[in-house]
Each structure stands twice: as C-alpha cells, then as structure tokens.
Design brief:
single chain, alpha/beta, Rossmann fold, seven-stranded parallel beta sheet, 43% helix
C-alpha cells in the first residue's frame, strides 16, 4: 500500500540530507514530489536518483520571489498540493561573541523568514486536510555549545507552526514540527568536521545520545511520512523529537 498515493508534496531543501531522504520515501509512497534546492547540479542529481517523476526547482528560500514562482508552478501543473515540508536550512556554529551580523542575517533569512513566507505563499494552494511539516531542531529546546543563533532561528519556526495549527483549523490542515537530533548527513562537513575527524566526532556524539548512535536521514524521513500521511491524521501541533533520546540526556 502506498501511503501518499496521488498526493502532491513540496519539500524545500529536498536535494540533500533529510530532505532528500524524505523526497525519495514520499515518491516511493506514491506522491508527486517537487523538491527545491539552491544548486542546479545537486538538484538535478537528486531528481535523477529519486526518479518517480520527481521535479526539481532551483531557488533560495530566502528569496521571496522564489516562493511565488514555486506556488505559480504548482498551481499551473497540479492545481494545488497536499503536503508542504519546510525543510531547507543553514547552520554555522559560533559562540555569541563571534557571531557577525552577516551570520545572524543568513540564519534568520533562510531558517526563519524562508519558512514563514514559504508557507504564506503555498497556503492558498494547500488542499483542505493537507499537512505542513516544519523542520526545526533539537537545538531549539536543548542548549548546545555555539548554537545560540541557529537555535533561535529554529525555535521561531516551531512557534510559527503551533500558531498555524490553530490558524488553519477551519481547513483541517495539520501543522507539525519535526525536530532532528544529530544526523549523519553532509552537513557535518559544513560544520568543519573533516572526513579524518568524522569517526571521532560521531563517537563523541553517540556518547551523548541514549540510543548510542547518530540518526540516519531515512529515520527522519519515516517520521516525516508519519506526520504527512493518514497514519498521523489525529496528530496536530506537536513537536516530534527524532533524536535517539538526546533531549533527555
């Protein structure tokens, strides 16, 4: 049984990591997937790997015109959509004293502004009883070293989602928050973790997680499928921590 048969799903940041794993799973479950990403070559590669008629759109979620172009395309080709996953994000860890205005603005332009105006643009196209998933982070609720700006940008989107769950009540659109813990994705390289240092880093992170290991993108994808599908039809306004229990540690 395909849990998303004939559904139309948009996933921002769907060209890598958690977004890509979710796009692949949604497509396998019968959805028409539209994914976005900033780099043309990476988006094209992801589309080729996922198959199932997936569509890639190149654009930056911090650019408000991108959201309108995406909404116009969805309306023109599909008439509307059923699932919107606001997943695109950036992270640059730094102690608060070392954060530049450029660092701050980049985090909030992508992680926060991009989510808010993305939902604003697609909301008129979301079919009644649809689903919105906002990717936040464990860092929004658990204090971690050098995460202040990133955590703030992710805490804001969790607050957006809870408000939207009430705002969209008349249309029965569910809005939920997916909060990953440490996950084995390419973003580790962006954090400055070299391939040589990666085993040591992963061992250290595993020691902080009750499950004894980092998460895998596919595990976050399965959690997103639950929130998007009828399996989660009575789940609304929650923050689902998929972190191996790290919130408790």
């Amino acid at each position: 049984m395909q849990h998303l048969k004939d559904k139309v799903a948009v996933i921002t940041g769907g060209n890598s990591g958690i977004g890509k794993a979710t796009a692949r799973l949604f497509a396998e479950e019968g959805a028409q997937v539209i994914m976005t990403g900033r780099r043309h070559d990476v988006v094209d590669q992801a589309v080729g790997e996922i198959g199932h008629g997936a569509i890639g759109i190149v654009g930056d979620v911090s650019d408000l015109e991108h959201h309108q172009k995406l909404a116009d395309m969805v309306k023109s080709r599909f008439g509307g959509l059923d699932i919107y996953m606001a997943n695109a994000g950036v992270i640059n860890l730094a102690a608060s004293g070392n954060v530049t205005p450029e660092d701050y603005d980049r985090h909030f332009a992508t992680n926060t502004r991009g989510v808010f105006f993305g939902v604003q643009a697609v909301a008129p196209l979301l079919r009644d009883s649809g689903s919105i998933i906002v990717t936040s982070s464990l860092a929004a609720t658990k204090v971690l070293p050098d995460h202040a700006v990133y955590a703030g940008s992710k805490a804001a989107v969790a607050a957006f989602a809870k408000n939207w769950a009430i705002e969209f009540k008349p249309r029965k659109i569910r809005v939920n928050i997916l909060s990953p813990g440490p996950v084995e994705t390419a973003i580790l390289g962006k954090l400055g973790v070299s391939e040589a240092d990666r085993p040591t880093f992963e061992d250290y992170m595993a020691s902080l997680i009750p499950a004894g290991r980092m998460g895998r993108p596919e595990e976050l994808a399965r959690a997103a499928l639950f929130l998007a599908s009828d399996a989660g039809s009575f789940v609304n306004g929650i923050e689902l921590h998929v972190d191996g229990g790290m919130t408790l540690a």
